[in-house]
Write a structure and sequence with these properties.
By secondary structure, this protein is an all-alpha fold. It contains five helices and no strands. The protein has one domain: Nucleotidyltransferases  domain 2 (Four Helix Bundle (Hemerythrin (Met), subunit A), Up-down Bundle), CATH 1.20.120.330.
Length: 119
């Protein structure tokens, strides 16, 4: 279920990007990454809703085990911080097209890699 949510968010992020809603596209692309990661937690019987703890868990269980790249999780975690700034910051960050493209591409990669681990 969480992987289908990740795929749905990725589609939404792509649509938002095309419509020019850059900050929202990045937030939704991050949500795609988050839900892809949660799919692995659910597979492992772990229920966690903390965005920070998700990255810690994935590093400890999947990066250390050689199943996911540290770069993939580091990029996801960087977009977690961007999401925080967009949603809760006092000033709206100026995300650019490269940020948007990177978020969407990382979400796409994360879904692909997680699907391999869910089989």
């Amino acid at each position: 279920m969480s992987i289908s949510t990740a795929e749905s968010h990725l589609t939404e992020a792509e649509r938002l990007a095309k419509a020019g809603f850059r900050n929202v596209a990045v937030v939704v692309a991050y949500a795609s990454m988050f839900h892809a990661g949660r799919a692995l937690l659910f597979k492992d019987g772990v229920i966690e809703k903390s965005h920070y703890c998700l990255a810690v868990y994935l590093r400890e269980k999947y990066v250390t085990g050689g199943k996911l790249s540290n770069e993939l999780i580091s990029v996801m975690d960087a977009f977690r911080e961007e999401r925080q700034d967009v949603m809760y910051g006092l000033e709206t960050p100026e995300l650019n097209k490269d940020d948007e493209n990177a978020a969407i591409e990382n979400a796409r990669k994360m879904i692909k890699e997680v699907k391999k681990l869910l089989v």
